[in-house]
Predict the structure of Thiamine-monophosphate kinase.
Amino acid sequence: MIEDKNQQRTPLSALGEFGLIEHLTQNFKIKQTSTIKGIGDDAAVLNFDNKRVVISTDLLVEGVHFDLSYAPLKHLGYKSVVVNLSDIYAMNAKATQITVSIAVSNRFPLEALEALYDGIETAANIYNVDVIGGDTTSSTSGLLISVTAIGEVEAEQEVYRNGAKPNDLLVVSGDLGAAYMGLQVLEREKEVYKVNPNNQPDLEPYTYIIERQLKPEARKDIPKLLLELDVKPTAMIDVSDGLSSEIMHICKQSDVGCDLYEEKIPLDPQVISTCEEFNIDSTTVALNGGEDYELLFTIAQEDYPKIKANPNLTVIGYMKESKEGLHLVTRADTRIPIKSQGWKNFNE
Amino acid sequence: MIEDKNQQRTPLSALGEFGLIEHLTQNFKIKQTSTIKGIGDDAAVLNFDNKRVVISTDLLVEGVHFDLSYAPLKHLGYKSVVVNLSDIYAMNAKATQITVSIAVSNRFPLEALEALYDGIETAANIYNVDVIGGDTTSSTSGLLISVTAIGEVEAEQEVYRNGAKPNDLLVVSGDLGAAYMGLQVLEREKEVYKVNPNNQPDLEPYTYIIERQLKPEARKDIPKLLLELDVKPTAMIDVSDGLSSEIMHICKQSDVGCDLYEEKIPLDPQVISTCEEFNIDSTTVALNGGEDYELLFTIAQEDYPKIKANPNLTVIGYMKESKEGLHLVTRADTRIPIKSQGWKNFNE
């Protein structure tokens, strides 16, 4: 949150559109055998042999999805890739390529875009995906990032949202609510900074939750793990809008009901302590916070022995007949209907 | 340019993000056999068997790429699809799917987005492509449209920018410069309207060039025609930034030079008459105007007899050794070096 007034500022107009794309993508290496031709022609060319191709796309808008007063551009570039790859993994697929387009106003110097693309490149390397195209244009205000992610999957391995059956178990990877609480801490520190710019915040107690907000990871490991465990989920979705919203998607598309057990919801100790500090209910945060980028899936009960010992996976619920509805079973053993709070970003 | 003050205005917040996507895409039909799963899961799923997959993406930004004071939203939706499909045809491929993401501020009512999606759907139907995904989000200002186009092509049919050889012929489809001159007319009428909103402009003499600006078409027919004529271009690109810029791309990537003949450049009579009216040189417009979405390609001389009688195609130049450079050969038989003016949208 401390601006370096001496940083170098090269205006974007010094490069022009073609020069800018070339400059920003010159280090990007092709790693996937399915990439025949990457950046540099009218379109990229890919070859998936007989595999299924999966495609997903997301927009990230400054002032809506991120706040540059605390999101470093490198982390933002990283996150913009990760949130899209998460959708590919939610199909039980392997991510192979991305396209990245940005619209940016002239208030951003070249060095800012270099930082952004540094994060994009870092994510592309860590997740082993090729950057195969994109568009770079000016905007009248702010920064917007549009990423399309492409992946491949054997036809018999793909997992949709609509295959959950009554009696299936509901499983989630990792833990929930941390990204939301990280955002609360960052928003609070931003307000403190506005009042006193010399205040140095102690963010040490919040390192995990802040990292989950600013630099989340997608669960590339889970489709691989499931294959190793010989478990094919009956339905799968990634947790981007909050657990309750994702459960509702699976239940609606699979035409099933669900009991979700409050006591089973995996929470990091930092989430619990920060929720206490902010006087927010941690279950509400897990249900409605979002941006966890964990995978939520259902499995047949017979597969339970295969996953029960795995520290990455937690059984949090039980699928029921559609007519029984969706409920949170609380620690006090009361049943509360699950409603989506989701991310409503068109509120006026 | 006349606003209907009585039009219905439903605020976007009345639907929420999920409701909005569902509402806008509910009529979209799947037409391609390669589309296994369209909108409605974490990602779309496609099956191209052994064909190559081509992917291209573009951003259109309000105030940079379009002006809603004269671009009707339905036309804008149509155009945002067409400009992306053009890149797929430039690979000599068949377009099969698109994703469409929009960021939109609350000043747009639902009815505006319905008009936009009506245009998107119309284009998808006419060009026979499936809308398989997208993202809908709010923006802090204005409208932004991000389209990713997907196509398929047999490996032996794909055409890059880098295959042109000395002695090849340079060929262009259709005519050039019309979209740019249409924009000049629209910009002039906008200024007139500002001064006198009751003035009814007579746009009859400009119907073709205005349509080329507001509702351009991509050359879906050309890859098909070339296949029928048994002509495989050695290099191909679409004319989005202007003829000179596209020639430079082919020459740079193919390591060749080029003589472009001014007298051969195909111009519509409305372009010529409007250029006279605006006192602009029509060759300059064809070279630098852009947004024509015609296909520019090179062919071996031996293929000339196959294309010479076709009214869709005009031979406009001749490829040379790289060291001979790029020149416009004028009507007065002088040689002028070709320089890109292109579309520089980062000018301050």
User: Anything to note?
Assistant: Chain B has two domains: 12-157, 169-337. The first helix of chain B runs from residue 16 to 25. Residues 342-348 of chain B have pLDDT under 50 and may be disordered. Chain B is about 30% helix and 25% strand.
